[in-house]
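Final report, section 2: Outcomes. Of the targets proposed, Adenosylmethionine-8-amino-7-oxononanoate aminotransferase is the one most frequently requested by collaborating groups, and we therefore present its record in full.
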Amino acid sequence: MLTTGLFMSKSLHQDNKLVDTNFDRNHVWHPYSSANPINDNYAVKSAAGCEIELTNGKRLIDGMASWWSAIHGYQVKEINQAIRNQIESMSHVMFGGLTHQPATELCRKLIELTSQPLQRVFLSDSGSVSVEVAMKMALQYWHGNRKPQKSRFITVRNGYHGDTFGAMSVCDPVNGMHSLFRDVLPQAMFLPAPPAGFDMPLDNSWQHEVAQAFELHSDSLAAFIIEPVVQGAGGMRFYNPEYLTFIRQLCDEHEVLLIADEIATGFGRTGKLFAVEHAMICPDIMCLGKALTGGTLSLAATLCTDDVAETVCQSAAGVFMHGPTFMGNPLACAIANASIDLLLASPWQQRVKHIEQGLKRGLAPCAKSDQVADVRVLGAIGVIEMKQAIDVAALQSRVIANGAWIRPFGKLAYVMPPFIINEQQLNSLTKAICQAVGPV
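The predicted structure is given below as tokens.
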């Protein structure tokens, strides 16, 4: 029922030390949750380093890095100082017709860190929006090329690119959490997922099927979008980087743009600064987010080549038709600059390698459980795939009792900890998960 013309006064209660979990349950809608949840969310008091402290005093080793973004952990002095410094001058100013040093410095950094052909940067608010931007770039590119019939996107199953409408259309139609919207989404072309296994040899039959799809449909294809090397929320799958090389070649041969969604994999998570480096390729368009600000504020970027940018502006509009209100937010850009500087000044490669070794060692016992289908690790990513769907609340409760925090989904219990996690914390994290998964 809609209520109109009625003013209802509500008392305001502010107490930073308390979390009203009853109010939270009845009025606050959390990600991928029911409006009438059975269980309360765990109330957080603070977070520092690699630990989250609950309001009941329980300390948990964070195995999620706040959905893969807090690569430096929490309460990072360099990032906090960048926040203080930037607030002294401006926290926000519109980006239309104006510019500022935090944004230009960040764009310069991103261009220097990525492959040479990527020379233009479009800033936005979130990872999903960066994918929307990439898809709109691809469509306007072909209008600028006088080939407007090239308007369809091609991708692989088990992919995940975000929750906004364009992004949903290229997520796995069955496992991508968006099957409810299938009838109203643009119809992308879905190919089989690259066969699993980072070190597995290439599958010739898969290559043949993909090549055939390009041959048959290239006249209508605008872009191929894919998560390089690691498919994230669509299944936490790793695949051989040579498949990316193969896809890059097909895109070149058939005049199809390649979009690399590096939102989850960017900034070192797989052991390379960007996952496309495993294949030594450069996409036409690259999406970045999550760890861009070290998990402090929402910010994303879409990079593209000069060719893409200039051709987009040869379309009838003459400009790129997108402009978020908080585009280039100075505070977020200043934080991103501090986070990137901190990452590059750190021994991040050694840290990720150490985490990879610790995850392989610590999660190996889980493979002995009759309930576990697979255990896999790549870089600072560890995955336990169960044979049956996980009771998320029950597993989380057991992991928390063991002093750690993870957020399972489907059949997967996985970890992507902050890069600063030490050996003792990593051992405790993997032990907590193995104990929670079940007897071995």
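The first strand starts at residue 44 and ends at 48.
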